[in-house]
Description:
Two copies of one chain form a homodimer.
Chain A: H1 3-20, H2 25-35, E1 41-42, H3 43-50, H4 54-66, E2 70-74, E3 81-85, H5 89-115, H6 125-153, H7 157-165
The first copy, chain A, binds a DNA duplex through residues 24-26, 43, 52-56, 58-59, 62, 79-81.
Amino acid sequence: MDLKEAKQQFIQSWGVLGSQWGINRTMAQVHALLLVASQPLSTDEIMEQLSISRGNANMNIRELMSWELVQKVIVPGDRKEYFCAEKDIWKVSMRIMYERKKRELDPMVKVLSTINHLEGDKKDPEIKAFTETVENIRKFAGQADKMMDTMIKAEENWFWGSFLKLFK
Amino acid sequence: MDLKEAKQQFIQSWGVLGSQWGINRTMAQVHALLLVASQPLSTDEIMEQLSISRGNANMNIRELMSWELVQKVIVPGDRKEYFCAEKDIWKVSMRIMYERKKRELDPMVKVLSTINHLEGDKKDPEIKAFTETVENIRKFAGQADKMMDTMIKAEENWFWGSFLKLFK
DNA sequence: TTATATTTTCAATAAGTTTTGAAAATTCAG
DNA sequence: CTGAATTTTCAAAACTTATTGAAAATATAA
Lengths: 168, 168
């Protein structure tokens, strides 16, 4: 396998993984392309390498920037914009975790909190069972939340290493 | 808010969360419905409560069973099948983690391993950079994998509690 | 300022995914 | 067995999401 093939394979797989996890396949592919690019790429280069339209490329690049996974690079004397990706996989993971937590988990936790103030006889086994189930999920989510926060704040990669020693 | 509303709210939110994470919205809703049901439900009850067709209900129930999140319950003297969900949220999370790891992460790790045997001058900075990026991702994934395995094997809920003390 | 390169937007369309519903298969009580 | 109840399957339809491409907006060099 040569470099070009290997890159393509990587981009392809990253795209599949992304789409299985609810991330636009093209967005994941653009991300992958930039992850393995040895220099920043222009919109045109991205369009060409992935065979996608300008609109599509533009949209997904901007989305990746809003996730802070990709940065704009200005080359003096060149009118085009170039883009490059954060390559430290720890930082990448923490960014993704942070965004997903903020955009998706937090709203769910909010709903769970609302839900357990409900009227009716607190002794009613139906109500008791429901409240308990929801409250358990809420607590669990709260703990996961706290754990994520700590991991996200632990900017340094070394943390990951020593943390993982706990798991043999 | 009364119990019925609260349940509906919960089912709705669980469905949204699922779809954002690449899980069929209806599957997540059936799961939610069974999570907060005080007794096992039949296919007809699920169809009615979620306003979905028999085919749809059947398909998603079976999918949930393949994830081992839902179990069939046989009521003697009743020809209908009933279904109930695992309610221990720790177990639920571990099941989901396990399935997703197996179905989605493992194939990616396999691709990553294939990819870093590539021909060409190992000194070439292009090749070196690519190999390094991929290798870092592979290592990271390997560690996450190991961590998940440990968590999954730690059947008991107490583990979560002591584990979380690490995060203040 | 002006002309041109570049980026952004968005309505139309394409592609992908989910749902339906009715027919086929299966199950089981009598 | 038989036949009614139940579950399963799957092609077609409905719905959702992603992509295109050309026009509008913006930026910049001269």
